[in-house]
Amino acid sequence: MNTLEIILNERDFNYKIFKKINDGETSEIFLGEFNGRKSIFKLTKRNNFNLIINEYLKSGVIENISKKNVTPNILFYEKKIGLLIYEYIEIESKNKILKNIQSIGEQLKKFHQIKFNKRTKTYKDQFNLYINKLNSESKNNYLKEAIELFNDLKMHENENENVFSHNDLNANNILMSKNNIFFIDFEYSSINNKYFDISKIIDSLNLNNSEISKFLFGYGIEGNTKEVNKKIKRWSLMNTYTELIWAKYINKFNKNFLNEAYLKLLASKIKQQKL
């Protein structure tokens, strides 16, 4: 009997666990049934990497996420043990998602309107955590460049652009079912600039100019102007720097947890983005 089953049995829940479908650095994810409904069970791991995570489970944020209908139907959660159970949905293909790109912008806007507590951790807190752990590599160009870009973005930041940000909206975390768009996996969410998520979606889904315009229109940004393009480009680069720094941070705790090929791919992507 695994930890999840022990927890569920202690609460006398009506459940079935079919299989584990993911085992990441922050959580284990299982497919099963909860009260007769096909469900996803997400159990937070012990934070052995000392990450700043799960801000969405604090200060009522998860209730607001549920009310906004931007994530699959949440069936149960308990902050103390880090257990989240939500309804399983049959997902559509990427091509169908791209045909609803304006809806993704609309859903992201709704998500960014979620109210957060002033004590909620920020992207700056997360970034500084990674940097401080990697201070022995301070002479590395990627680290110096990332810090310079981060400081420049913060210096010219409009505070009105700060939102409760998902921070990891890769293609796997954007789902569509019956023409409804949902986001999942909020572990790394924090207060951040809205263009962090905007640029991540554009990059992750490899949107063309027409799709970008529809996506931005859905979000409420009219006109793909030079200023908007510049913000998207710079935050897209910041996204990749952050992913590389995060990966190196993780490997500091657990050598080769993330393979070298992945790190090289990120470094190569940064070179391309800087052109």
UniProtKB/TrEMBL annotation:
KW RNA-binding (keyword) present: no
Signal peptide: none
Keywords for this protein: Kinase, Transferase
Pfam families: Choline_kinase (PF01633)
Segments forming domain Protein kinase: 15-275
Domain of life: Bacteria
GO MF annotation list: ATP binding; protein kinase activity
Record flagged with keyword Transferase: yes
Family annotation (InterPro entries): CcrZ_PhaseVar_Mediator (IPR052077), Kinase-like_dom_sf (IPR011009), Prot_kinase_dom (IPR000719)
PROSITE patterns the record matches: PROTEIN_KINASE_DOM
Protein name: Predicted LicA choline kinase
Species whose genome carries this gene: uncultured gamma proteobacterium eBACHOT4E07
Species classification: Bacteria, Pseudomonadati, Pseudomonadota, Gammaproteobacteria, SAR86 cluster
